[in-house]
Specification:
The strands form two sheets. Strands 2-1-3-10-4 form a five-stranded mixed sheet, sandwiched between helices. Mean pLDDT is about 85; it is low at about 1-45. Helix 6 (about 110-115) crosses helix 13. The termini are far apart. The chain is globular, with a radius of gyration of 19 Å. The chain is α/β, with parallel strands linked by helices. The chain has helices at about 1-15, 35-45, 65-70, 75, 90-100, 110-115, 160-170, 185-195, 210-215, 235-240, 245-265, 270-275, 300-310, 320-325, and strands at about 50-55, 80-85, 105-110, 120-125, 135, 150-155, 180-185, 200-205, 220, 230-235.
Amino acid sequence: MKKKIRRLAVLLAFATVFSLAACSSGGAGTSSGQSSAKTSSAKASSEGEKPVIRLGMMSSSDVIPFALINRNKLDERYGFTLDLQVFTSAKDRDAALQAGEIDGVLTDYVGVCMYRNAGLDVRITGITDGDYLLLAGKNTGIKNLSQIKGKSIAISQNTLIEYALDRILEKNQMQPADVKKEVVSRIPDRLELLRNNKIDLVLLPEPFATLALDDGAVELSSANTIGLYPAVSAFTEKVLEKEGRAIRNLYQAYNEAVDYMNSTDLSEYESTVIDAVGYPKEMNGKIKLKKFRRSKLPPKEDVENAIQWASAKGLCKSDLSYDSMIDDVTS
């Protein structure tokens, strides 16, 4: 019972942290680093210090390599300063990006489509490794995808979560109408509905997916399992023109951080993972990470599929192109 209470407390504490633009329509909250961003940027320009890259994010698994850049002081080695800013709501993060208070964001295909539709020239510069797991409640009796027709699933509407669900269904010869979508904006609420047997299925990012699995939920599929890697890093075109070299160096540091992750026992940097992703401390020793990929641009087909889906939902214009969505900082 005490264990359940501790977990519930953790979920409440992170209730808004995981409202990704891909997972929620936004909400109240504040940035833990907006004021420091302005100070850091002004200091760098006035004193001629190394360029500062201000990256806005929500806590999730795709943050890990960036957190390791700071932990392992790779930004110092590659000649820039990485200012990671964790936001507690997508709305605040997006407002900071539009105001020029941050340079780039960790987001997803659908999120970039929506930025562009809002008139913000944001370009995808690299892939990241966030995943979204389709889970069935432990008491549902559902053990595989063939059993989910007609079942209820908690999602956030017109977001990456819904997009990933639709693609998982499509890859398994099903239609979106084959499940009963129930709109539940807050990720902790979706998890609690699953735990309390109020919903059959959920699609969750980390750390909530691991918490659900630890409680006995059954993994049926995931975005990565079907070859969908929709999480990306992106910067404004204005920043890319001004600090292109520094951002190119950022990805060299990112790749070194990924190589470190893939060749080092997790126990060596698990505390960084717990802090960056937002796992409860009780998950120490239980966390499992897949191999991360080195940064590169996402496949053209994947981005175009997301544009097609987003435009059908009225989230962006159908003539948005792959070339206008990306920027190859390595060229």
